[in-house]
Each structure stands twice: as structure tokens, then as C-alpha cells.
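Per your request, structure below.
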């Protein structure tokens, strides 16, 4: 039994095959070079508000969602498309406890932080409820927030923004259900860390934007003059 468990853990740390194409690996990587080369980067042709990638060409403009309802945050950006290697890496990092992948994801977060958010005064992560934190053992978004904070050279608020109630996982919920699930689930407990400042809110993935929108709403209510959203990856095209 002990040998089987040890073999399983060793396989997580040093996998023998690529997690995407199952080809043989040499060394401690999770993905073969061919699959890593397929990582999709989000270009400049995006919604000026939420950062949703557009198909085709066109000048800077908001997407139809942001025209219909202006979100509570001022701008959202992500460097990577949530697909293939990036999706698998985030799942391993977030649910599989493979924390070494924070380096791969953190590099992309660091690279974009100064380009997109040079005026940010404080950085914070989307918080986990204490019960979820105990289940997972770490907050995956806090590692990414620290990478952005270090790059920008500004303060990192570790628990100024908190989650006040346990919520269902968002992954299996539709857009309306996601918004209802997180409504009223966050609070700012140290408003002095955000009042009058431009806050950079960091998470792993932007899907419908329900979670970051609710966080942005309470940060603005606490006095933040601007709220930016930065995620390692995002889904969806216009």
C-alpha cells in the first residue's frame, strides 16, 4: 500500500508522459515541448473593458456584454487562453495540489502586470473561504497575486478582502447561477488598505466574471478608486 501511494505521488511530481498527448517525457516536466508550443496567448484585439478576445480585426471597443452592462471593475486582462496545456496546468495546480506549476503561471502574470497595470497601488487575491482553504491547503490565486505584487513593487493585501460564506464550486453553474452563488459572499475587513487606491484583483481564471465582479463591487464600496482584474487565463471569444 505504501509503495503504491509513493508511486502515485512520484508520478505527480515527475510524470513519465505528457499530460496532453501522452508522449514520453524526459525530466520533470508535465508537458512535452510540442504541446507547450500550442499555448495560446491573448493578443491586443480584445474588449477594452473585460479583455474578451475578439475574432477578426477591429479597433479598440467594448464587447456587447460590456456595452449592455458595465461591470463594477474598470478593466480586466489575461495573458493566456484557458485551453489545452493552460487548462490542464491550472487544474493540476488548483485541484491536484501541484504547486510547482505556480512558477509557470506566475511568469505570465508577472510579465503582464507592469504592462497593463502600472498605476496599481495595492494587489489582492480572490479569497477562499476558510473551509475551502482547509480542503485545498492553499489559495492558488494568492501565489499569483504575490507574483504581480513583486513585479509592480506594491503592497500585497493578504486578508483585507475575505470570503464571508462558503459557496458551491462555480465550475458546474451557468452564468446566472454563478452570479447568485457569490452574491454577498465577500467583504472588505480592512478598508484602509484599499480606500483611495487603485486595487489589482488577481485570480486564476476568468470565465463569466461573476466572482471578480462581486469582489470588485465590495472593493469599490470600501473606497477603492479603481479596481483592475488580472487572471492567468480566460475563456470566451466575441
Amino acid at each position: 500500500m505504501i509503495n503504491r501511494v509513493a508511486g502515485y505521488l512520484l508520478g505527480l511530481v515527475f510524470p513519465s508522459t505528457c499530460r496532453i498527448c501522452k508522449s514520453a517525457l524526459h525530466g520533470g516536466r508535465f508537458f512535452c515541448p510540442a504541446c507547450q508550443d500550442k499555448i495560446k496567448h491573448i493578443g491586443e484585439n480584445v474588449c477594452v473593458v473585460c479583455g474578451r478576445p475578439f475574432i477578426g480585426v477591429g479597433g479598440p471597443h467594448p464587447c456587447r456584454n460590456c456595452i449592455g452592462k458595465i461591470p463594477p471593475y474598470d478593466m480586466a486582462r489575461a495573458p493566456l487562453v484557458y485551453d489545452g496545456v493552460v487548462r490542464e496546468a491550472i487544474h493540476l495546480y488548483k485541484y491536484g495540489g501541484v504547486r510547482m506549476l505556480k512558477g509557470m503561471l506566475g511568469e505570465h502574470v508577472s510579465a503582464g502586470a507592469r504592462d497593463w497595470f502600472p498605476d496599481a497601488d495595492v494587489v489582492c487575491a480572490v479569497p477562499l473561504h476558510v473551509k475551502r482553504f482547509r480542503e485545498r491547503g492553499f489559495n492558488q490565486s494568492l501565489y499569483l497575486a504575490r507574483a504581480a505584487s513583486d513585479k509592480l513593487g506594491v503592497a500585497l493585501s493578504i486578508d483585507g478582502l475575505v470570503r464571508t460564506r462558503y459557496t458551491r464550486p462555480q465550475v458546474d453553474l451557468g452564468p446566472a447561477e454563478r452570479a447568485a452563488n457569490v452574491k454577498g459572499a465577500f467583504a472588505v475587513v480592512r478598508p484602509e488598505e484599499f480606500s483611495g487606491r487603485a486595487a489589482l484583483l488577481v485570480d486564476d481564471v476568468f470565465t463569466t466574471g461573476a466572482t471578480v465582479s462581486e469582489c470588485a463591487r465590495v472593493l469599490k464600496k470600501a473606497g477603492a478608486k479603481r479596481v483592475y482584474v488580472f487572471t492567468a487565463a480566460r475563456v470566451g471569444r466575441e
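The domain at 39-234 is CATH 3.40.50.2020 (Rossmann fold).

Regards,
D.
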